[in-house]
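Morning. Coffee machine broken again, so started the prediction first thing and wrote up yesterday's gels while waiting. Chain of 69 residues, entered below exactly as on the submission form.
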Amino acid sequence: MKSGTPLRTGPSSTCSGRYISGAVAVSCWYANSAGNIWYATAHYGTLQDGWTYGGNFTELSMTLDDENY
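Came back before lunch.
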């Protein structure tokens, strides 16, 4: 993750959240109405969970398919 990445309560920039950096676990993805890809994540250090915009990842090893949508 990029430093200072927002971890949001939902898959939209209008949702509230807090800022994180470092490694996260990704459980699934979602394409919102604007066509942006968001990932349901849990931060390894704090175990805080939420939604992260795909553009904030520095590296991601995940295939976007129906199985993890």
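The CA atoms of residues 28 and 67 lie 9 Å apart. Going to sketch it on the whiteboard this afternoon.
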